[in-house]
Design goal:
- A hairpin with a 2-residue loop joins strand 3 and strand 4.
- The chain has 8 helices and 12 strands.
- The longest helix has 16 residues.
- The chain has a 6-stranded mixed sheet with strand order 8-9-10-5-11-12, sandwiched between helices.
- It is α/β, with parallel strands linked by helices.
- The protein has a domain of 165 residues: 3-Layer(aba) Sandwich (Rossmann fold), CATH 3.40.50.300.
- 38% of the residues are buried.
- 28% of the residues lie in helices and 26% in strands.
- Bound molecules: adenosine-5'-diphosphate and magnesium ion.
- Magnesium ion binds next to helix 1.
- Adenosine-5'-diphosphate binds next to strand 4 and helix 1.
- This is ABC transporter ATP-binding protein.
Length: 273
Amino acid sequence: MTGTTVKDEGQVRPMATMPPRVPLLSMKQITKSFNAVEALVGVDFEVHAHEVVALVGDNGAGKSTLAKIVSGVLTPDSGIVEIDGEPVSITSPSAAHALGVATVFQDLALCDNLDVTANLFLGRELTRGGSGLKDGEMEQTTKRILQDLNSPIPSVKTELRALSAGQRQSVAIARTLIGNPRIVVLDEPTAALSVAQTAEVLTHIERLRELGLGVILISHNMVDVRAVSDRIEVLRHGRNNGSFDAGTASYESILAAITGATKYTQGGDRRYG
Ligand SMILES: Nc1ncnc2c1ncn2[C@@H]1O[C@H](COP(=O)(O)OP(=O)(O)O)[C@@H](O)[C@H]1O
Ligand SMILES: [Mg+2]
């Protein structure tokens, strides 16, 4: 096969006529209210394998609510969620895990008094059927995952309290890779980090894409978002308000969608920038 043709059911035809790929995750017309607060109203969202999609918007736009629906922490009032084109109900975090969705929430939920390996396997320890834990195996897996992420954490036996905020974020991201997920959701992973630590986390995100995962990156930081994502989806007041190609969209056009200076009209041209 050459670089410019693909084989499909015996047919060889140019790449340009390939059918659209089925998204890894597709959310259609998702609505979620908390009593009188409409957190999400008819939101559409998609992520493909090998793709980083940034979810941006002002405080209260609905970003974390959407992340919690993907993670099974919240269930939508209405709308359809599909994985590989098949409708799914993500009714709990364990259901999300079983469907290949892993999430790093803003609080990280790590244990300071435990080492890196123990944090990766927290609650999911590998046991030897009653005769203790498979420490060696867990350490090897931890080392491999940190290598996969290009993480420079010196030892997997280091207690979390000795790590920097950036290294802790690395551990939280590494933890998501236990169980070979296909979709990783990161809620504000760089919010509390220095410039150097942020660069490290962005490298991990690029590695997740190279490993073939679909990544949902929630962030306030337009520099980060434009550096690492393929596509930028804007939420405003719980509604889609723009979809941008991260490589070409201007900062001003993204900002205008976030602040509401430009409005996305359903059925209109969603791509501007
Ligand atoms: N558990 C909750 N109970 C009531 N209101 C909530 C709850 N979670 C979120 N909200 C409200 O939903 C809206 C969207 O919140 P959120 O998804 O956290 O926004 P973002 O992450 O974009 O800042 C906000 O108005 C917020 O106050
Ligand atoms: Mg949030």
